[in-house]
Amino acid sequence: MTLKQLSVASECAPFVKTGGLADVVGALGPVLGAHDVECRVLLPLYRQIAHLAKGAKEVMNAGSRFGGPVRVLARRASGIDLLLIDAPHLYDRPGQIYLNESGVDWADNHLRFGLLSWLGAEIGQNGIAGWMPDVIHAHDWQAGLTPVYARQNGSTVPCVLTIHNIAFQGNFPATTMGALGLDPEGFTQDGFEYFGYVSFLKGGLMLADQITTVSPTYARELMTPEFGMGLEGVLVARKSDLSGILNGIDMIAWDPATDPALAQNYTSRTLAKKAVNKKAVLARFGLGTDTAAPLFSVISRLSEQKGLDLALQALPAILGKGARFVLLGSGAPELEQGFKDLAHRYPNSVGVEIGFNEDLAHLIQAGADATLVPSRFEPCGLTQLCAMRYGTLPIVSVTGGLADTVIDANEAALAAGCATGIQFAPTTAAKLGDAIDRAMAIYADTKAWQKIQRNAMKHPVGWDVSAQRMADIYHRLAGA
Ligand code: ADP
Ligand code: GLC
């Protein structure tokens, strides 16, 4: 029997994306289709995606909610069935989806994502245009109140909550409770109360039927003070309902054989053609035409999480040994400045582009020899998975999904012929530097390097196994 699933999320690729959450939400629908799950995605109609309203059909008029008129529009786009929340007072504005034009969180984010959560619960209870979900899948804090509203309204629809990143919890002053329409009886330790705040994520973690996160290692890490960010106790208490299911990447969007953003398509059998992309990246960043020197890359949000301050420290020594480096990213002003300064200091070997550019991200993945992911914590990480598919070796810290997806090129793995990248621990600039040195030494041995590239390209990075596990959870909950 086909099972109907409603995804509730604040991002969905290819429409609106700030990071991997969007990739996962966008990929899940199509992959779950193969597992007899019919998926719809409930998503705010931000100004950035206002064009999607054209040709969409109104399927719900919710009247005045959270301070203004609210409708839901349905349409299919890029193979995804979307339910778009049309609430101009909350979503039709400039700036980014979470931040205003000054780079500060929108002051009414509790209402913006409270509405998202509320509608998720509403559709879970009453359906929409005759479509009744069997299970709700809420993503991150923005959808965290979905199970809270569902239970408050007496709905029994099963709810899964996925933690993509526990650093973001959606904690707001207790005074927001009224505007959010939350029952003050839920403002307890067993509910959505968290140190005197209303916590979207904590509420969801307490009330969801099943909690998943995006890698087995992160699932374990989350139960420790080092990684749980204050919610470790909640996760320990819910341990029996917590599972770590590894993310995959969209194997169609990220396929070096067909990717339209590349200068030259290639496969593991035509690896030599990858060099055409390297040339294109070097040209794009004005770094000359010499493809012999190793080219390292970073494609990332620039935040404390990603450990890129360590790259800033480690890179000068590496550049002194002839390596090249390119970065595409945006975020913390001091990191943006740090990388701009690096490019200024090394104009012939460092290229930096501050911004978000999907096509350039694909080209860099194809053109670089290796990519750096020195994260302090990383729930799953998708860039190392994309890199592997493109024969670009990931150099990663041993944490979360990075620990679970990369096989370090140590002597044993090299001898066994199964290495797919390089890992280092602890997460320090010195160890990152050593790891890059190790990569450079292997790179000098073309045959050895190519062997790892081919392993990486063969490594399963898609959704096959994980989509089945997710579907199994839905079926179990819906059948219970
Ligand atoms: P996170 O979700 O923590 O940012 P992930 O590795 O899971 O990290 O996902 C990041 C996603 O965002 C990847 O698809 C990556 O290619 C993309 N990405 C990050 N920064 C940029 C950027 N500046 N331009 C284009 N894509 C980016
Ligand atoms: C988060 C995490 C990242 C993960 C992504 C998708 O943004 O930081 O590690 O891959 O969500 O689950």
Written description of the protein model:
There is one protein chain. The chain has helices at about 20-35, 90, 110-125, 145-150, 175-180, 200-205, 215-220, 225-230, 230-235, 275-285, 310-320, 335-345, 360-365, 385-390, 400-405, 410-415, 430-445, 445-460, 465-480; strands at about 5-10, 35-45, 55-65, 70-75, 80-85, 135-140, 160-165, 170-175, 195, 195-200, 210-215, 240-245, 295-300, 325-330, 350-355, 370-375, 395, 420-425. Helix 3 (about 110-125) packs across helix 4 (about 145-150). The strands form 3 sheets. Strands 3-4-5-2-1-6-7-11-12 form a 9-stranded mixed sheet, with helices on both faces. A 6-stranded parallel sheet has the order 15-14-13-16-17-18, sandwiched between helices. The protein is globular, with a radius of gyration of 23 Å. With about 475 residues, the protein is an alpha/beta fold. The protein is built from 19 helices and 18 strands. About 50% of the residues are buried. The protein folds into 2 domains: about 5-250 and about 465-480, Rossmann fold; about 270-460, Glycogen Phosphorylase B (Rossmann fold). Helix 1 (about 20-35) links the parallel strand 1 and strand 2. The protein starts with a strand and ends with a helix. Alpha-D-glucopyranose binds next to helix 1. Alpha-D-glucopyranose (GLC) binds near residues 19, 21, 24 and 382.
